[in-house]
Amino acid sequence: xxxxxxxxxxxxxxxxxxxxxxxxxxxxxxxxxxxxxxxxxxxxxxxxxxxxxxxxxxxxxxxxxxxxxxxxxxxxxxxxxxxxxxxxxxxxxxxxxxxxxxxxxxxxxxxxxxxxxxxxxxxxxxxxxxxxxxxxxxxxxxxxxxxxxxxxxxxxxxxxxxxxxxxxxxxxxxxxxxxxxxxxxxxxxxxxxxxxxxxxxxxxxxxxxxxxxxxxxxxxxxxxxxxxxxxxxxxxxxxxxxxxxxxxxxxxxxxxxxxxxxxxxxxxxxxxxxxxxxxxxxxxxxxxxxxxxxxxxxxxxxxxxxxxxxxxxxxxxxxxxxxxxxxxxxxxxxxxxxxxxxxxxxxxxxxxxxxxxxxxxxxxxxxxxxxxxxxxxxxxxxxxxxxxxxxxxxxxxxxxxxxxxxxxxxxxxxxxx
Length: 417
Fold this sequence. Notes:
With 417 residues, the chain is mostly helical. The protein has helices spanning 22-26, 28-38, 58-65, 89-92, 102-110, 116-121, 123-138, 145-150, 152-162, 169-180, 188-210, 216-229, 242-272, 275-283, 288-299, 331-334, 369-386; strands at residues 41-45, 51-55, 70-71, 142-144, 309-310, 314-316, 319-321, 327-329, 391-392, 414-416.
């Protein structure tokens, strides 16, 4: 699909129109396999209708994830390319739009909340929440595992971490769904959700300024206000603007929910599809961490990385990409690349799982990776222990995934026991 143009470089440049992404939405792993065979880099049409480059092979994706020439900052984007969400400044100043040194400065402020020791201290509260959700489901004999369990669990955990009242959580779920899978026939819903989120976070921060709590968001507000008021340099001289504070609260809540709900849902379905694997982890729950790691590789929650913009002309997989064009790195394709993972379409807990890219690579590696892993293991352990006869409650062919490149997750997962 590559054609050579006179670009002043020996590298080929693609001059064909962007390819249709429908196959990537309908059957992503088959579509990725076909693209990998055809070439390492392809022009596609992004979710907003603008073109982007899609990188498909493991070695190229891994290198690109850590390449400082590929910026997350939209100021490096050329006009007319895919840019992702259009957010107001008070929500847009987040880690997914930043390079060092700003990225380093802000990440340093929150990374201490996600250390292995702090995550392990959350294990018992997570298990308590999981058990309470299962108690509420038990007598019914059936449930939608996404709406009743995989969704409420991570939102409860991250809201408790940030100190967000229980009464606000249902609204947040509705806003998140409007952002993750916008209705193309009703674009106003996404705008309304963004406006409501901005109002919510602004009000939440104001409330916590008035009455701080024992939570991460109150700690971040204190850092911000100490700096602004000159009472100290906070966090060893780190700075945090008001927009960065609001954006950080948005990202922690949104990111802490989205990836984990899909990881849990995909893992449960993967086990229900494989009764032998299901029996093995039920009989030996100590194997669940390895199963979760393989599910991250096999059917992870983030098929494509956040878009990047080259700060200079560069080559990926032998293809020349101009500065400012939009680049999407296919995590789903890289994790199924047979050059790195033999027999990649087979779920195999015994394979070498080191180096999978489900949670990123380099300085933008997922901040909440340890928390997501722990939540998934606890969620599966509690669920499979409570309902050993768990089964699908609809024909397998009736299940539907969200039609988006941004996330890989089920709309619903009806189960019975």
